[in-house]
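Attaching the record inline, Q. Sequence:
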Amino acid sequence: MFISHASVDVDRAREVAVLLERAGYSVWWDDELRSGERFQESIIRELNDALAVVVLWSKAAVESDWVYSEARRGNKQDKLAQFRVADLDIDELPPPFDVFHCPDVTDSRAVLSGVAAIVRSSHRPAQGVREDDTWRSNLPAARTPIVGRDVELTELHDALERGEGLVTLTGPGGSGKTKLAIEAARAGHELFPSGVVFVGLATATEAPTAWGMVGEALGLPDAQRGREGVLAALAKGRRLVILDNLEQLEGAAGVVDAIIESAAGCALLATSRRALHVRGEREYLVTPLAVPAGDRLDAARASGAVTMFVEHAQRVRRDFELTEQNAGAVAELCRRLEGLPLAIELVAARAKFETPAALLQRLHGLLDLTSMTPAADHRQATVRQTITWSYELLSSAQQRVLECFGVFEGGADLDALEAVADDDLEHGVLELLYDLVDANLVSVHDTVDGRTRFRVLETVRQFARDRLAQRGTLSQKVDAHAQFFYDLAGHLYQGSRSAQHSLTRVRFEEEVANLRAMLAATPDGVHDEPFYPGPVPLSHLTVVVTWVCLRFGRVRDAYLVLTEAGDRTTADRYAEVATRLAFGDAIRLLPEVSVDAAYLETTRAMAAELPDARLPPWVEPRNVEFFARRQLVILAQETDDLEHAQELCDDLVDFAQRHGTKRHRALADEARAYQAYRSGDLERALTFLEREHGYFEEIGDVRQLAICTNNLADVELMLGRPADAAARLVAGTERVVDLGDLETFRVYLQTFAQVIGERAPLLVARAEGAARSLSETTGLAPEGSEPEHLHESVLAPVRKLVPADAWAAAVEEGRATPAAAVLRELAQEAATIF
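Structure, as predicted:
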């Protein structure tokens, strides 16, 4: 490389010389002139011999006849690479150089790229590199463009530019490690004047075979393809070597370590489903492509997974386009495929014959979808073969732990996995899980409450379930899974009313998919002594999951559980009545369906006929009967049939006194308070609510305490005592935040909005936005609708005080803000006002 520069730019020239030398080039600049040489002859000789003339243009260089002459000679010989020093604008370059590309000299990547382009076009080896070490590349041709990997390519280029000696791309099979390594090498080849060499090692299981394959890729004679010959060749020049598929190679770490120690100028990009764990290794995890967060066209277009789907669909169907009509189906396909490039490629190839919506219906056969073109690698002809390759590299114990994931939905924590795993494993489950994480078959995630959660891709989960079926242990694992989650459901049912409600809610949200999977698997080996002498009926499992969903505000999930259960809940009389009760509660809360008094009366009558039995609370007959009576009271009150509601309320109180617990008596007082409220006797309503509050304090039911506090504030407000109402709400705010219950958040937002009202209209709008978000989360918002979620009587007089656009903006702001933050803001405002 010949560097031309003005004398005042000598420091900049020195920096460029160092950059090029580190990249493996031989560099000449006027610092190389020796005493006694004829100055001009020496410069012309070196310029003519150079592969590239690197001109550094600055204000001083533009005025220099020497720099201009050298630039002209370089341009005439088609080997000019020019760069600007910071003080020079592009339009200050002298003609004809002002029409040529001239990046900033501080952009190292641009400098190396520009020089490498000149070297490639010359078809000559760089000076200083031995003749047997000329620039070469055997990178496989790209059959399809790489998509959705801009960040990864930039990060890998930066690593290579920093001089990292070994970067190992790890990740699950089918995640695109090989393609990413090839494209990273292609993008960064200018950093390696001695070339880029690709070595496919999928068939190598021993080190001698691997050395031979590296030697072959380097073009060495047969006699030099052993360890010593390969190391000697790699020690020459500056070269990048891709070692593809190292996971099955016994002694892979030794091969890599030897190259690092013996060939300082050789950089390695390795691909493996697990890290090599050698000194100096930088592990780079290749995750699946980003999937869209929503179904809208703009969200889909921003997703790397969707971009890849469209690219491959268009290869088989030229007129395929992503549209408003199919964006939702394509987005859901990519989410179901979890962004796994191999799976997306295989499914997108079917777009030639089927619409995205039709493909979505047939994903159950994903594991065995075959490539529409001959596979370059037999291990990736199907997703199943890709996973099988990794599976067969595991020990027997590791395989058996991986298979356990076949019965889980959404992953599992260590306790759940240990409950399902075999007892005779030679190592502990946690140790084996670490091995599976290292093999990139299992991923690790931290939970809000500090526990560790383990997950696998859906394709791996399906594979694991198939292996359980082939091994004949699927039913055993299904029962073990069901036993664990039935016990957990009971814990969640009780914990939903405790001081640990927020942590219990976190656990519920993590495991709701597993609870529903338990029912879908129809287990018959769950036990709960002393309540059941034999297996717990499936109908009883359905009831507890339904009530847990209802207790945590997941009303739509509860409704789906019941509708999916179908006739199986009628097989047992106790479960049938409890199911009718839960169904009535869910229907009462959902806006698009309704329940009538005849249905609820039938439920009450059926419950009254049930003989006493020692059963869990969710099916215990007197508990079920109490709540059936309570539903009748609520319905009569909500339909303004207050005379009948009073009769039902008196019956409920009498029942609670004779058969009930403190909880039943507290809820009976709640019904009496609401009856008094609806009848206009607010002071009496306040008395009943105070008594209810006392009961729940004794019981320690923090959720009902919070709701009761809200009701007390509501009555205070109706009595014309807004300061007292505000004081109750402010005092209960932190309890509600700690509780984390979505429905309780919503009712507090409602009452706070009433208290503050016209004093802070935009804050009320933010409360409405937060309430909307909560309704959507709990499933209480009618699909496709945008209702007001605070009472219109509260919103109407406040909304008219501010411009419509300001109101709408505040609502959206509230929707995007955590409910706890909005609630605290309301409490602070109320405390300031009153």
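Residues 400 and 421 are 8 Å apart (CA to CA). Residues 33-37, 123-135, 372-376, 781-788 have pLDDT under 50 and may be disordered.

More tomorrow.
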